[in-house]
Specification:
mainly alpha, two-stranded antiparallel ribbon, 2% strand
Length: 231
C-alpha cells in the first residue's frame, strides 16, 4: 500500500507539471493518447478459454475503429457531475454501438471473463447497476483518488458484465470518465501488457484491488511521461 500511495503521489506531481504547460487536455489526449488507448481496448477479449488463452465472447459483434472513436469521444464529452451520474450514462454508450438492441441489459448467461469471475445472473443486473451508481454518487466514493475510482469501477462493472455485446469495451472506456473528471490524462497502455491486466482482474474479483489500481497507475504515469516529452 505504501508503494501504491507513492505512485499516486508521483502521478499527481506529473499532473501538476503538465498543468503548468497547458490545460488543454482534450487536445493532448486526441493527439497523443487516444490512438494507443483504442488499440489497446480493441485488442481486449471478454473471456479466457480453458487453456488460459483469450477467446471471443459468444455472439460478439465486431467493432470498427471509427465506432470505438465515437465511444471514446462520448466519454470525453460526458461532463455531468459525479453525484448526478446514473445508469443512463452507461446505457448511452451501449446505444451508440448497438442502436437496434431490444433489451438494455444482458438477458442471457455469459462465460466468465477470467478464472475467478462468477458471471452475474441476468435477473440481478438491473439492481446491481442501480447499487453501483448509488455507490458512485456517495461521499465515500468521492473521497477516493481518481485512479482508484476508475479501477474499482472497472472491477465492479466487469464483474456485473451488463451487456451482451461489447460489455468490456463499454465498461473500460466508461471508467475513464473518473480520470477525466479529475482532470487527468487517460492511461497509456501497451497491448503486450494484457496478460498482466487479466491477472490483476483475477485478483480484483477475489477482493484484492491493489494490483489493478497499480496497473492503472503505471499506465497513467506512462501517459504523462509520453506527453511531457513531446510538448
Amino acid at each position: 500500500m505504501l508503494q501504491l500511495a507513492a505512485q499516486l503521489a508521483s502521478l499527481d506531481q506529473q499532473k501538476q507539471w503538465l498543468g503548468k504547460r497547458t490545460t488543454d487536455l482534450r487536445s493532448l489526449i486526441d493527439h497523443y493518447l487516444a490512438p494507443h488507448l483504442l488499440e489497446y481496448e480493441l485488442s481486449k477479449v471478454p473471456s479466457l478459454s480453458e487453456a488460459g488463452a483469450p477467446s471471443p465472447e459468444q455472439g460478439q459483434r465486431e467493432v470498427s475503429r471509427s465506432q470505438a472513436e465515437v465511444l471514446l469521444s462520448a466519454v470525453m464529452d460526458l461532463t455531468k457531475a459525479m453525484e448526478k451520474l446514473d445508469s443512463t450514462d452507461l446505457l448511452h454508450l451501449q446505444e451508440l454501438l448497438v442502436p437496434d438492441q431490444e433489451n438494455f441489459y444482458r438477458q442471457t448467461s455469459s462465460r466468465p471473463l477470467v478464472s475467478t469471475h462468477q458471471p452475474m445472473d441476468p435477473v440481478l443486473i438491473p439492481g446491481a447497476m442501480d447499487r453501483f451508481f448509488e455507490w458512485v454518487r456517495s461521499p465515500s466514493f468521492a473521497d477516493l483518488h481518481a485512479v482508484e475510482q476508475m479501477s474499482l469501477s472497472q472491477m465492479r462493472l466487469y464483474e456485473i458484465n451488463p451487456f451482451l455485446h461489447h460489455s468490456t469495451l463499454i465498461v473500460s472506456l466508461f471508467s475513464h470518465y473518473f480520470l477525466l473528471k479529475g482532470e487527468y490524462l487517460v492511461p497509456l497502455y501497451e497491448v503486450k501488457e494484457l496478460p498482466k491486466f487479466y491477472q490483476a482482474l483475477e485478483e480484483a474479483f477475489q477482493l484484492s484491488s491493489e494490483a489493478l489500481v497499480g496497473f492503472n497507475v503505471q499506465a497513467c504515469q506512462r501517459a504523462y511521461e509520453h506527453v511531457l516529452a513531446r510538448i
